Amino acid sequence: MLLMPTQISMYQEMSALSAQMVDAARANDWDRLVTLEHSVAILREALQRDDDNGSLSETERDIKTRLIQRILEDDAEVRRHTEPRMEQVRQFLGNAARKSRVERAYGAT
Fold first, then answer.
1. 97 occurs within a structural domain
2. Where in the sequence is the domain holding 65, given as residue range(s)?
3. Per-residue pLDDT at 108
4. Against a cut of 0.70, is the pTM above it?
5. Across 1-5, 54-58, 70-74, 77-81, least confident range
6. For the chain, how many structural domains are there in total?
7. What is the distance between the terminal CA atoms of the chain, rounded to a whole angstrom?
8. CATH number at residue 98
9. How confident is the model at residue 33 (pLDDT cuts 50, 70, 90)?
10. 63-72 long-range contacts, Cβ below 8 Å, gap at least 24?
């Protein structure tokens, strides 16, 4: 018989993945970060479909709350590392677009 994962186990897995995302962001390992984020997104979608606090005990709700808080803290840490990189990418793309417009305007090849 196949057992379905519990909400708590899915939140625990998401928390473990978010901690790995922090490590990847700190190491500037963007490919690994994207892969981990994809895994988190799959769990998040599953939880959105089946997130029923009514089926949880008070202890489980407390565990869930702590896990969500940890996930949010990890998310903030990932953002601290990714936002500067994203700004560099925005500037690079903006400069490339400007250069392209100038080249088109002045016929440069």
1. yes
2. 9-106
3. 61
4. yes
5. 1-5
6. 1
7. 66
8. 1.20.58.380
9. very high
10. 63/8, 63/11, 64/7, 64/8, 64/11, 67/8, 67/11, 67/12, 67/14, 67/15, 68/11, 70/15, 70/18, 70/19, 71/11, 71/14, 71/15, 71/18
